[in-house]
Design a protein that fits this description.
Elements (H helix, E strand, L loop, with lengths): L2 E5 L5 H12 L7 E2 L14 E7 L13 H10 L7 E7 L12 H11 L3 E3 L2 E2 L11 E2 L2 E2 L2 E3 L8 H15 L4
Parallel strand pairs: 1-2, 1-3, 3-4, 4-5, 4-9
Antiparallel strand pairs: 6-8, 7-8
Length: 173
């Protein structure tokens, strides 16, 4: 089973979370910065993909991460990822940007789903403080939202719980 971890970052926080998550998932490949990837077609060779994305351009209708993910969304949507399991984690600020908390996760989720991937890693929105998020689907987020600005004391537990969840949902970790 081949599982890749990919991230894009503007402040280094998303990379830090990718590294921490990698330490919890012994079967995953070392995290790769999306800025160093020239062609997302390498996703097709993997069984599972874990993606980290920040929400930077809060309030925008598209390209909400302000990172390399934004320029690759259409390419991801054009891939055939049937049979691939994809999980997303996102970083945002729930107190300053409470109306756009981790919105970029939804955009990434949409394009991977469009490519036929099986989306996993959904997290209940219980125990989160925010007003709105485009990343909510029913009573769950479409991945793991993290707030290293206002709730960093909760990150370790959230990451630990999510890594256990991914071990069951993706397998091979």
């Amino acid at each position: 089973m081949s599982v890749g971890i990919y991230f894009a970052t503007t402040t280094g926080k998303t990379e830090d979370i990718a590294e921490r998550l990698h330490g919890m998932l012994s079967g995953a490949d070392a995290p790769k910065d999306l800025a160093d990837i020239s062609d997302v077609s390498e996703f097709t060779s993997l069984d599972g993909i874990i993606c980290g994305i920040p929400t930077w351009n809060t309030g925008a209708d598209s390209e909400r991460s302000g990172t390399a993910w934004d320029s690759m969304l259409e390419d991801i949507g054009a891939l055939n990822l049937s049979g691939k399991k994809v999980a997303i984690f996102g970083l945002g600020d729930s107190s300053t940007y409470t109306e756009n908390f981790c919105d970029a996760m939804e955009e990434l989720h949409s394009y991977f789903k469009k490519a036929g991937a099986t989306m996993v890693g959904y997290v209940s929105k219980d125990n989160y403080t925010f007003e709105e998020s485009k990343s909510c689907i029913g009573n769950s987020f479409c991945g793991l939202p993290l707030d290293e600005d206002s709730e960093s004391d909760m990150t370790d537990e959230r990451l630990s719980n999510w890594s256990s969840q991914l071990k069951n949902e993706i397998g091979g970790l």
